Amino acid sequence: MIFLRRQLPLLITMITGLVMAAQYYVPHPASEQLLTTVTKWLQIIGGFALVLGITSLFHVHAAKIRRKEAGWAYSLVLYVGMLGTIIVGLWNNGKESIDGALTSFGWVYSYTLVPLQGTMFAILAFFIASAAYRSFRARSREAAVLLVAAVIVMMGRVPLGEYILPLSGDLSSWILNVLNASVRRAILIGVSLGAVALSFKIIFGVERSYLGGGKE
Amino acid sequence: MTFAERMLRIDRRIIFLVIGLCTLVPLLFPVGLPIKISSEVRGVYDYIEGLPEGSVFLLSLDFDPASKPELYPQAIAVLRHAFKKNLRVVAMTLWVSGTGLADQILTQTAKEAGKENGKDYVFLGWSPGGSAVILNMGQDLYNAFPADYGGKATKGLPVLAGVQNLRDVTYAISLGAGNPGVEAWYVFGKDKYKFELGGGCTGVIAPGLYPLLRSGQINGLIGGLRGAAEYETLIGQKGKAVAGMDAQSATHLAIIVLVAICNIFYFSLRRQQRRQDGMGS
């Protein structure tokens, strides 16, 4: 049993990891066919992951409703919303529109999901303004540099800013293209090297937390 | 409580009101300040402008309704340009919650340009797998999307004539609001299948894509509402983005003024406290 639970997954991970890493450098048709097959598997697994995620969400919220935990009414709203959308979606074969005409599923999408998500995102502008007023203070030299850079970029990214301070457009572009790009690149290289190191650890079985049950 | 202290603890509803007014008033009474075109946006525009008729143009609308205010005008402007240039448009999304929106955008712009579904354009819809879909398309487009969004078999569609995989795509643009988005299209798409790639994104994630832009991994970037407004200006069809730029100008300025006021009161309070501490000791 320990072989099936521990050693076999580690073996599959190692073989798959090494083969797929090597595949990238082998342009042979057989290698390309392997990639085609494996990416199809990935898509199928992705579909199952979606089902698994929804099932898990249902379980978590069902438990909340059953135990009448704090905020259980929100879980009930989630249940009603999700089940309602799934039923309407299945009824319409998952189509939001047919020949340009909205289906009932499309109606749910256009008149509930679109405005709700839009509202959530729009609210951010108000909270960002309030947060900027309360915390964007030049408490130190570093904070002052950040503050000045932010003001220049904010001015340079809108026509009114460029109209008031014509230099702000070029300055903002320089900050984004030179300072920002170089720092981001350094972070990206660091993150990528970390990802390579982690991949090696997973392939060679050093990192096993994905198997569950903690480290052995 | 001193005046400075009172101002620093101002009711946040006043700030909300200021921001609300700064958004609403310019939308009702637009000023229409000129919009300067950046080299990032021009990169995308010039490339599409230089494509010969009938080139395969792939547009991946990788966003959901939350990013509609910024990415919807970008998608409309880019599609209008592509249809005007008579490119063969292949649209899709990697975000399941963006499928309906992507379909609406494509249907609307195609209808406006008098284009025919299946012949001039196709909407492939969404397929599970995230970034893996890009790899799958790179290997075999018909394997990743055997049918289009309307359920029609993709094999044999006139718009996809001569297209087997991503290597046959002349130009691709990902309008992304996160992951999978522009970066995934570079890592899993352009790097392996060697097509030219451009990007579009929300203002928040635009700075994160500048390394890709500077190194030529993407040939242009349409960033946020400003980028969309620049593209609308370039194609000469002013739309929602240009209309929204006045509101964005006013809100940016309001935030700058608010931050300046907050710092003035912060420093005056600090000076007061130092003075009091000096007198105390």
Describe the structure in brief.
The complex is a heterodimer of chains A (216) and B (281). With 216 residues, chain A is mainly alpha-helical. Chain A is built from 7 helices and 2 strands; from the N terminus they run H-H-H-E-E-H-H-H-H.
Residue-averaged pLDDT of chain B, rounded? Answer: 93
In terms of quaternary structure, the protein is heterodimer
Helix content of chain A: over 70%
The helical percent of chain B reads 40-55%
How large is the share of residues in beta strands of chain A? under 5%
The global form of chain A is: extended
Strand order of the largest sheet of chain B: 3-2-1-4-5-6
Q: List unreliable stretches of 5+ residues of chain A.
A: none
Instruction: Specify the CATH class of chain B.
Output: Alpha Beta
Order of helices and strands of chain A: HHHEEHHHH
Low-confidence stretches of chain B: none
Indicate how many domains the architecture of chain B comprises: 1
What would CATH call the architecture of chain B?
3-Layer(aba) Sandwich
Give the class of chain B from helix and strand content and strand pairing.
Answer: alpha/beta
The rounded distance between the terminal residues' Cα atoms of chain A is 16 Å
- Note the total helix count of chain B: 11
**Radius of gyration over C-alpha positions of chain A, nearest whole angstrom:** 26 Å
Number of strands of chain A: 2
Order of helices and strands of chain B: HHHEHEHEHHEHEHEHH
Largest interface: A-B, 64 and 73 residues
Q: How many H/I helical runs of chain A?
A: 7
